[in-house]
Amino acid sequence: MIVLVVENEIPAADKIVRLLKKIDKTITILGVIETVEEAINQLQEKPQPDLILMDIQLDDGLCFEIFETINVEIPVIFTTAYDEYTLKAFKVNSVDYLLKPIDEKSLKTAIEKFKKVYGDKDPFKRDFRQLLYEFRNQYKSRFLVRIGDKYRSFPAGEISHFHIIERNVFLNDHQDKDYGIDYSLEQLQSMLDPRKFFRINRDCIVNIDSISLMYSYSSSRLQLTLKNREKGDLFVVSRDKVADFKRWIDK
Fold first, then answer.
1. pLDDT tens, residue by residue, 180-207
2. β-pair partners for 66
3. Cα gap 184→170, rounded to integer Å
4. How many C-beta atoms surround the C-beta of residue 159 within 10 A?
5. b or e along 28-47 (b: 16 or more beta carbons within 10 Å of the residue's beta carbon)?
6. Mode of pairing for the β-strands spanning 150-155 and 197-201
7. DSSP conformation class of 210
8. d(CA 140, CA 45)
């Protein structure tokens, strides 16, 4: 069983990890994260946890912002020092609601409840479901962007291109607005669906749906025009990528 711990208090997180390993030695801790932003990013990646232990009050807000931003279908055991959020917790994927300080008995009961409700005794069904999930979620479908003290989630289909400005990477949407992100272009290449996105040069990855026209640019390169944007050197396909680009665009 893979468990993700979302907890901003280090002593509490350490205690939860220690109790989990004591209760069930087969548990693998996917990670310990402290903020809403980190949780949203983690829950869009793979592998996915089977269960989340989640504090309600995190460093950058209440955990319910996670569920309002992305679709989370993973069961959650909430941990908190307050009981005022009980009803709201059970409106999402709550298995149990534990008040701090967490003790071994209450956590063990919650884990047993999770196994009873969500456990699958058929290993073939469990493995097939995991394979199907991984196939469907092989590529990143959304990107969380921080804008001041707020967050916005961009579906991959609403992104025109990614590009570098002075060593910083930006997401550009269909309104031609740039938003800074914390990924390199190399990381993005492995995250994005290669049927939809192509790295045309060292500074730019484009969405196939954003390309409106292509021109010859010298004898061995191509110039792209993206929808509602001016031509520029940013959208020139590198000489060494032209052949692969033509194959990609012609699929």
1. 998 899 989 888 888 899 999 999 999 9
2. none
3. 9
4. 23
5. ebbebbbbbbbbbbbbbeee
6. unpaired
7. G
8. 7
d(CA 186, CA 169): 11
Report the 10 Å Cβ neighbour count for 94: 15
Q: In which element (H, E) is residue 245 found?
A: helix 242-249
Which residues, in sequence order, are CB contacts of 209 under 8 Å at separation 6+? 157, 196
pTM above 0.85? no
> For 145-157, how does the pLDDT look when each residue is reduced to its tens digit (9 = 90+)?
988 888 888 988 8
Question: Helix, strand or coil for residue 230?
Answer: coil
Distances from the Cα of 122 to the Cα of 90, 117, 127, angstroms: 28, 14, 9
Task: Residue count of the chain, please give it.
Answer: 251
- CB 50, CB 1: distance < 8 Å: yes
The set of residues, in sequence order, having a beta carbon less than 8 Å from that of 76 and lying 6+ positions away, is 51, 52, 53, 54, 89, 92, 93, 94, 95
pLDDT in tens, 3-34: 999 999 989 999 999 999 999 988 999 999 99
* In contact, 79 and 54? CB cutoff 8 Å: yes
